[in-house]
Amino acid sequence: MATEYFLRMGDGQKIFMTKEDILADIAAGCADAADLGDIPTLSEDEMDHMLDIITAPGRIVGVEPGMEVPVTHDIGAIRIDGDQGNSGVGIPASRLVGSMIHERAFGADTMELGHIDYSFKPVKPVISQEQQTMEVCQQNMVIPMLYGAMPNMGLYYTPDGPFENPGDLMKAFKISEAQESIQKAGDHGIRDMVWIMQKLQKVGSDGVNFDTIGAAGDGDMYASLNAIEALRKEFPGMYINAGMAGELVLGMHGDLEYDGTRLAGLWPHEQVLLAEKAGANTFGPVCNTNTSKTSAWNMGRSVTFTKAAVEASSIPCHADMGMGVGGIPMLETPPIDAVTRASKAIVEIAGVDGI
Amino acid sequence: MWFFPHGCKGGCNTANEELFKTLSDAVVSCKKDDVIAAVEKAKGKAPAVELIDNGLAAGMNEVGVLFERGKLFLPHVMMAADAMSAGVEMLQDELGSSGGASSKLGVIVNGTVEGDVHDIGKAIVSTMLQAAGFEVHDIGRDVPVQNFIDKIKETNADMVGLSALMTTTLQGQKEVIELLKENGLRDKVKVMVGGAPATDAWAKKCGADCYAENASEAVAKAKELLL
Amino acid sequence: MPIAHIMASGMTGMRAAGDLVARMQFAKNMRIGEAKDFVAKKLGVENADLSDEFVMREIREDLDIGVITSVPGCAKGIAAKMNIEKLLGIDINCCDTFRNTIA
Question: Is 0.90 exceeded by the ipTM?
Answer without folding.
Answer: yes
